[in-house]
């Protein structure tokens, strides 16, 4: 998979993706991420990328030219199935859409800033508009990092234990069960006896019950 990210602040995204599992996926070439600074594509002699809104209103808007030219250049090099604009007024990202996007070969991510980007980009070039939740961030960069992390870990072979992405919360509309590790007793805080019983059938049943209990409590809408 290759992801091309258009942003005014690529460093924010880069620094979030250079650790742990995602770093390893990058090093192993299981994923290629290319960063494109929108400012580098500005035709303006001062490298201007934003302007006032037509019709009046507060806040600057990212201009069509640098984003349009950058996308057209990339599209001249390879085919993109998804050209995604990250925006709080997009469709909410969930595990089902992460699974879908993780199958894509080439993806473009556009990170907005200020008031947002010129609507013509959204109407004519963008294929998907994605939000990561019902709150507003100062820019699309952190959302892009969240998006990349959530789909890269789903690429086969990226997680060491192939089954572990399948047992994540949400994969079957259930939150994951409580987990424990050594020691069995710390300052009187004990691990549930059943997990140490060796009775695998009973453990499986307990995990399912706990998962359902947690889902009912925190996210009843999933049931
Ligand atoms: Cl994708 N962008 C911004 N700026 N804020 C958000 C978001 C995206 N998703 C939730 N809030």
Would you give an account of this structure?
With 223 residues, the chain is of the alpha/beta class. It folds into 2 domains: 151 residues, 3-Layer(aba) Sandwich (Alpha/beta knot), CATH 3.40.1280.10; 51 residues, tRNA(m1g37)methyltransferase, domain 2 (Trp Operon Repressor, Chain A, Orthogonal Bundle). Helix content is 33%, strand content 18%. The strands form 3 sheets. It has a 5-stranded parallel beta sheet with strand order 2-1-6-5-7. A two-stranded antiparallel sheet has the order 3-4. Helix 4 links the parallel strand 5 and strand 6. The chain is elongated, with a radius of gyration of 22 Å. The mean pLDDT is 96. 6-chloroguanine binds next to strand 5 and strand 7.
The SSE order reads EHHEEEHEHEHEHEEH
Biggest pleated-sheet summary: 5 strands, parallel
CATH fold name of the largest domain: Alpha/beta knot
CATH superfamily membership of the largest domain: SPOUT methyltransferase, trefoil knot domain
As residue ranges, the low-confidence spans are none
Strands across the major sheet, in which order?
2-1-6-5-7
What Rg, in angstroms, do the CA atoms define? 22 Å
């Amino acid at each position: 998979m290759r992801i091309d990210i258009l942003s005014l602040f690529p460093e924010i995204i880069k620094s979030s993706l250079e650790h742990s599992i995602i770093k390893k996926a990058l090093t192993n070439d299981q994923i290629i991420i290319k960063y494109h600074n929108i400012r580098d594509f500005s035709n303006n002699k001062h490298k201007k990328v934003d302007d006032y809104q037509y019709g009046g209103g507060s806040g600057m808007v990212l201009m069509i030219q640098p984003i349009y030219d950058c996308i057209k250049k990339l599209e001249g090099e390879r085919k993109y199935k998804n050209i995604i604009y990250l925006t709080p007024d997009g469709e909410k990202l969930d595990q089902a859409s992460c699974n879908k996007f993780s199958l894509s070969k080439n993806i473009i991510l556009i990170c907005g800033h200020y008031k947002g980007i010129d609507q013509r980009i959204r109407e004519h070039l963008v294929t998907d508009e994605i939000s990561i939740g019902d709150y507003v961030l100062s820019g699309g960069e952190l959302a892009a990092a969240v998006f990349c992390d959530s789909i890269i870990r789903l690429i086969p072979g990226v997680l060491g234990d192939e089954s572990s992405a399948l047992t994540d919360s949400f994969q079957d509309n259930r939150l994951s069960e409580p987990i424990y590790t050594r020691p069995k007793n710390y300052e009187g805080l004990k691990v549930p006896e059943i997990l140490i019983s060796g009775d695998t059938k009973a453990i499986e049943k307990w995990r399912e019950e706990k998962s359902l209990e947690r889902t009912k409590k925190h996210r009843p809408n999933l049931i």
